[in-house]
Write a structure and sequence with these properties.
The protein is an alpha/beta fold and 230 residues long. It has helices at 9-21, 37-47, 67-74, 86-95, 113-116, 134-147, 165-171, 194-203, and strands spanning 57-61, 78-83, 102-105, 119-124, 148-163, 176-178, 181-183, 187-190, 208-214, 222-229. Helix 1 (9-21) packs across helix 4.
Length: 230
């Protein structure tokens, strides 16, 4: 289990509280649905494209308790979920019993791609914005590329900049943003500018095919970016 100095330890702590409180998924801590409607619409649009796979093996990175992994399985994909939180994986297995879905507790920045195999579709289930160390991000992108089939698709779903800093300070008074990192008090999220994220994808060999950017506003202080790539 991560210790208090690990920047990703907060995830394990949140999932332990969710399990104790009977909250089944990350979004349902404060939302009525297990899958964000915006993300679901984007995934439906991305998978409807001619370059997207309609079947095959799918992997979700940062699967949490597995709502998106199960959604992909319902579409006919042979699905696998990976998360760094042992409690999240325990909950995912409980909620997916009998489905045939595989779940693994692992650090994607360190895991050997050979352990999981190759995939036709890899989905970032809000995993990459949790990587605050540039070396971790580079390692994770390299592993994604190494696990994709030649005609495979990678979908990135991430928070990003621009940021409404006054709204962020009002809504999250116990957190600060230094440069592009959110601290609470340890670093928990990377909120790179959306243009930087697109460059990062291209630098690692991914070609964006479908892009949807949502600018911050109202009660949402952070922007978000969804990208379907080949």
């Amino acid at each position: 289990m991560p210790n208090s100095l690990n920047p990703y330890a907060a995830h394990e702590q949140v999932y332990q509280k969710m399990k104790a409180d009977g909250v089944p998924t990350w979004d349902q801590r404060d939302k009525p649905t297990a899958i964000d409607p915006h993300d679901r619409r984007f995934l439906e649009d991305a998978l409807a494209q001619s370059w997207a796979p309609g079947k095959g093996r799918a992997l979700e990175l940062g699967c949490g308790t597995g709502p998106l992994t199960r959604w992909l399985a319902d579409l006919g994909f042979e699905t696998t979920g990976v998360d760094i939180s042992a409690t999240a994986i325990e909950m995912a297995k409980e909620q997916s019993e009998g489905s045939g879905i595989e779940f693994f507790q692992a650090d994607l920045c360190k895991i050997s791609p050979k352990r999981l195999g190759r995939f036709d579709l890899i989905l970032d289930g809000h995993f990459f914005h949790c990587l605050t160390d540039p070396k971790d991000r580079a390692a994770a992108f390299d592993r994604v590329r190494g696990m994709l089939n030649l005609d495979g698709v990678f979908i990135l779903m991430t928070m990003c900049s621009p940021i409404d800093r006054s709204a962020f300070a009002r809504l999250f008074p116990d957190q600060i943003i230094h440069r592009h990192i959110i601290h609470s008090p340890h670093p928990t999220r990377s909120v790179l500018h959306w243009r930087t994220l697109l460059k990062e994808l291209r630098d690692h060999g991914f070609e964006p095919r479908l892009i949807r950017f949502n600018r911050c506003g109202g009660e949402e202080p952070l922007s978000s970016l969804n990208v379907g790539t080949i």
